[in-house]
Amino acid sequence: MIGHAPAVVVMEACGSASYWAREFAKLGHEVKLIAPQYVRPFVKRQKNDAADAEAIVIAAQRPEMRFVEPKSEAQQAQAVLFRARERLVRQRTELVNALRGVLYEFGQSIPQGISQLKRIEAILKGPSSDLPAIVHEECRDLLEQIVEKTARIDVKTAKAKLLAEQTDTARRLQTMPGVGPLTSLAIEAFAPDMASFRRGRDFAAWLGLVPRQYSSGGKDRLGRMSKAGQADIRRLLIIGAMSRMNWLGRRSIAEGSWLARMMARKPRMLVAIALANKMARAIWAMMTKNEVYREPAQAATVSA
Question: Which residues are CB-neighbours of 161 under 8 A, at least 6 positions away?
Fold first, then answer.
């Protein structure tokens, strides 16, 4: 497309779409990316390259169509680091479960969690351990692999924290209770420009932190959380919300506040999802207004 007059280039959002979007933008073209699930309804009968291209053009012409924001090179680099750490965590979890499974076959029931490794080491080092020599050796090998994975995870975590300290946006996001370096890094890496959302509710809906609708005939039926958006940010926000409701986080919850009232009468996970929704709205406001987090009561006092 070198030498071609500036035009609108429409592509499906795939693995290399952001790279090509940046390359086309350098040549003066306007690039629009469409999520594949929004293109699929416009494919006629057989699926092939020509049918896909026609469907992309038809979908792009719809006035209500939603487009995907191309990621910058910095965002993609942050995403690579984040995904690398997540991959190591999954591999370590797999190794821990394999070790627990081996011990369970020989009568040792170990609870879930990485914190149980010391208990497993005590079992293997104990003088009363009656495990066969081969099993004992394999368990020691699994433990060594878990230690190696943990060391690599710690290195990735340190890199992520350092990266989160280098940008003003990530530092501001971490002023919100329940938002740490990993959450702020995930928001920077995976979230589009907040200007693409009209309000905080739209960002929360994009994350899937809203009920799934089964409405028909004028009757509203709301189901479980839709989970329709970016899974990494949604998961980290829910984890951050849960941390505010544990024994340590409860100290900062004002008596009579919305969160305190919800915790008194609703299940814990439901409250965590509702709080994550409010956190998403607050994040949208913080990023669009370039402000740090303010507690709702303090914000009301300032406006008064």
Answer: 181
